[in-house]
Amino acid sequence: MKTIVKLTLLIFFMEVGTAWTQTLYGTSSGEISFYSDTPLETIEALNQKSGAIINSDTREVAVQMRITDFIFPNKLMQEHFNENYMESEKYPTATFKGKIKEQVDFTIPGTYSVTADGVLTIHGVTKPVTVKGNIASTEKGLKLEFKFQVRPEEFQIEVPSLVITKITEEIDVSGRMLLVKR
Amino acid sequence: MSKNFNNPIGLVILLFVLTLSRISPTKAQDDLLQMLEAEQSKDPIYTIATFKATRLINGQTVETISRNHLNFWISHRFGAVNSGFIANFFGLDEAKIRLGLEYGLTDNWLVGAGRSSLEKTYDLYTKYKFLKQSNSIPVTVTGLAGWAINTMETCYGMESGAEMRFNENLERYSYWGQALIARKFNERLSLQLMPTFLHFNKVEDPSISNDLWALGFGGRYKLTKRFTLSGEYYHAFSDPISYESSTGKVYPYQDAISIGVDIETGGHVFQLHFTNSRGMIEKHFIGQTVGSWADGDIYYGFNISRTFSFDKAAKHKDK
């Protein structure tokens, strides 16, 4: 009986211990932009209010943004983006959740090239994705940069045939954010 | 405490729960997303695109255009569809035209100007969005103020048949103010109410009041993402009885009723419609519509709007 008590206590304190050392880095002002360039039209938009959290122990990552926070130089384009393509009243956010594959110790300063496996949810459709990026561990926090491509059709975002030549099949999405220690 | 630890079943449960919590990483991931959800900005989410354009058919909508954006409007109202095939090709042989420009000073404030071929009238107006529908505010409220000058030669014959004599240039002016109150009920349906006041410095007959109140009602229903039905009705609180008793003639002006469709293609909005009014500014279609749906005085017309962005500030910010 004594051993069980000891074992339980040990596991219990291990749990508490890990809970205490769980280090979270986060931001609510991450920049995410996307870009599509065809001879007919350049489409770009920037969201500077994206939220992101990295748990440096479990190396889990979560990113969330409001679709309506994407700012376009052309406001009419922004309206069409929200109204016709993203249906942002129905699907207000896009999210990514995943885990960094590399065993990186973020407490050691340096720049690490990382790969995150996870799921991306856009327009209410969830797809598995692998995102490549860099994480620089600095005094200020973790500087995260990433780039990947999205095919609108995979997320059931309809592009009418009339404008299909104005939008690339694969849209470049890139992100840059500084996550500070919580 | 020690008594509890002596209970092996309790210990096993405790062990089980603790182990379970360690081996469910997906739960932890959801927690991260939940944390983000909780941290997400509480800024109101404003309703966008209550209407496709700044005009519903003849009248305005609550919409303004964004800062440094320019709208170019080309509007035509052809002749009456009942004017005959040989004589007038169902009205398409002739048209009243209005060309207009509007510019967004801020995201909520625009200024506009236009020139109508009907009564050779120039108009200036400004529109300001006071209240925006959001997840906490139920309606959008926009105010409109407009002015027009009629540059016809004096003693011209009006559409109503009356002769208009101007003794001085001030008499050529008319003014209007309008409150536009709209709600986007869902992604398809938006409705709008437009209480309006008009003032004419000069009217053709003393029994017609220089001041005119009107109430408009309109709306749109999106059939598909780019194809929308729209309708608009303005009731003018005029006084036909005093006109008829003092002149012995039938009061010439009707309420403006219009129905149409909006077709949106990227930077353009095409509005095609049928209306009993040939005027495209408030003074004309609210105050001086002579056509009657009942008599078949229906005019086919269109508005085309093209938006240009002069906002370079947001461009290349991220490069």
Describe the protein.
- The complex is a heterodimer of chains A (182) and B (319).
- Chain A has 2 helices and 9 strands.
- The radius of gyration of chain A is 20 Å and the shape is elongated.
- The mean pLDDT of chain A is 87.
- Chain A is an alpha+beta fold and 182 residues long.
- Chain A starts with a helix and ends with a strand.
- In chain A, strand 6 (110-122) and strand 7 (125-137) form a beta hairpin.
- Chain A has a single domain (2-181), classed as Lipid/polyisoprenoid-binding, YceI-like (Lipocalin, Beta Barrel), CATH 2.40.128.110.
- Chain A has helices at residues 2-21, 75-85; strands spanning 24-37, 42-55, 60-66, 70-71, 93-100, 110-122, 125-137, 142-150, 171-181.
- In chain B, a hairpin with an 8-residue loop joins strand 4 (121-131) and strand 5 (140-150).
- Chain B starts with a helix and ends in a 10-residue tail after the last strand.
- The model of chain B is unreliable at 314-319 (pLDDT under 50).
- Chain B is α+β, with helices and mostly antiparallel strands and 319 residues long.
- Chain B is elongated.
- A 12-stranded antiparallel barrel of chain B has the order 1-2-3-4-5-8-9-10-11-12-13-14. A two-stranded antiparallel ribbon of chain B has the order 6-7.
- Chain B contains 6 helices and 14 strands.
- Chain B has helices at residues 2-5, 8-22, 25-39, 85-88, 240-247, 282-287; strands at 69-80, 95-106, 109-116, 121-131, 140-150, 156-157, 163-164, 173-184, 189-200, 211-224, 227-236, 256-265, 268-275, 299-309.
- Chain B folds into 2 domains: 2-40; 69-318, monomeric porin ompg (Porin, Beta Barrel).
- The interface between A and B is large, with 55 and 48 residues.
- Chain B: This is DUF5777 family beta-barrel protein.
- Chain B: Residues 51-308 form the DUF5777 domain.
- Chain B: It holds the Pfam family DUF5777.
